Structure formats: C-alpha cells, structure tokens
C-alpha cells in the first residue's frame, strides 16, 4: 500500500505519479494514521492496474463512507443535544484534569435549558458536556439517520453495550449539595462490519471520556476503551434502543424524567422529519456520503443547517408549552 506522501505509480512503480484514483482518495488507511492516496502516471497505468486495484479501492471507499457516516451522525447529535439540552449548568470548573459541571436546581418546572455556550469556550469541553451520559440517546434518537446512511454500505450493524475503561478525561456533574454523577456507567456504541470483513466501533458520544473521533477500528477500540474483565460486552439488534427510548413505557415514567424523555422523543421526530424534507429537495443522504470531498462537505453543511433550523423552531414552540402540568413529581 502506498504511503500518503509517496508519489509512486501504483502500477509501474515510477516516481512522479500525479493522477489520483478518486474512487478511494482520502479514505482512512487502516494500516496507519494516514489517508489513502492511490497514484498513477496517467490513464494508461490506472486502467492497467484496475483489475488488481478494484477490490482494495472498493474497501477503501466503504471505509471512507463509514468515517463520513460517523462524523455526520456525531455532528447531527451535537446539534440535537444542544437544542434538547436538559441539564441546568450554572458553572463549569476544571479541577486537575477533570471537567466539573455545576448544576442548579430543577424545581422551577423547566425541562430544557439553554446549552451553556458562554461557560464552555473550549470545543472539546463543549463536546464533553453535550455527550455526558447520552450514549443511549445518541443511538436511539439518531437511529433513522444511522439507518439511512448505513443502507447499502454497512448493513451489518449491532448495538453493543460495553463497560468503558476509566476516562482519559474524567467529568462529573455537581449538585448544590455535592457530587452528582460521574460517567462510570455502561456505554452503548455501534459495531459495524464492512463487506470485506473490517470491523469498526462507531461511538459518537466518546467526548465525555476524552475521545473526540467517532469511528475506530474495532480491535483498537476494545483494547483502549473497554474493560477486559467481567461481562463487558453484550449485543442487541440495531434499533433496540430506539424501540425502548421512544416506547410508551419509557416515556410514561412519572415526573421530570418522563417529561424529559417525552420531550426528547418529540425532538427526535422533528429531527427525522427535517432529514426527510432535506432529502425531498434532491440529494439523498446515502448519495451525499459518496460525493467528492468538497461537494460532501457542502451538502452536509446544508443538511446540518436544515436540521438545526427545524430543531430551533421546534424548541421555540416547545418552550412555551406547559409540560409541567403533565407530571406531579
Ligand atoms: Zn505508472
Ligand atoms: Zn482506488
């Protein structure tokens, strides 16, 4: 496999090759931290090499789609969470390496709170706050988006419950009366197997542990992120968490908790509708993942803008609604 800085023709091995195989260009290279760049002298060398290259090219392309898929779902979830934020953060403190989110009370009937952008200037801290204790929410509420993106490329996907290793960057919420919760509970991710057998972890809420990417080779994820003792891994079919989180039993929990769950389900429905509407205007999300790099970034920007707009609008209407009367706890 050519390294990313070599200019050697993949067919005849001559130096100074400059014709890129656009099919696989920029795909993550599983053997290094670099990106795939298959170069040829000219159309002749490329054509001559195609029979040899096509299997690898296809595998690179599938991997590129998966990484884009992970990034897209992660961005979308940040936007979702920012708009459906349910933590009342009054102060942020960084103590040793830990991020502490100081919460106020939850006694004024509010279910959603403005995301504290002004307290979280650092992009990684912001992502940590957005993902804290939300792994299940991400898998459940982004299910439709995951589902349409996975179609055709990575149909082999399961939801996996893991027991995470201690975080690289610990965080905790603190209530006025003392520490509340750390993120030491089980963690849910997706395990995706590509057609050529390569396996990946898709984890869009890793920022709460100090990991900010969304896709990792499966073996590497297990080694660095998962506790190896005990029953650390269990599997559920793709869609299980959505069925649970959007189900009547889950949302009918009495009190504040049930109200938040119901609110999140409504935001998720709004989110799905926005994606549908965007697709209705022309480009399908699956096609977007296959575009050239620039076109992809442009299309994704449009999609995210569309989703953000829909969620903001829903939130404006939502804030005025009296959900407090719906529960008595
Ligand atoms: Zn050549
Ligand atoms: Zn190629």
From TrEMBL:
Gene3D superfamilies: 6.10.140.2220. The keyword DNA-binding does not apply. One of its GO terms (molecular function) is zinc ion binding. Keywords: Metal-binding, Zinc, Zinc-finger. Residues 9-57 form the MYND-type domain. InterPro entries: Znf_MYND (IPR002893). This is MYND-type domain-containing protein.
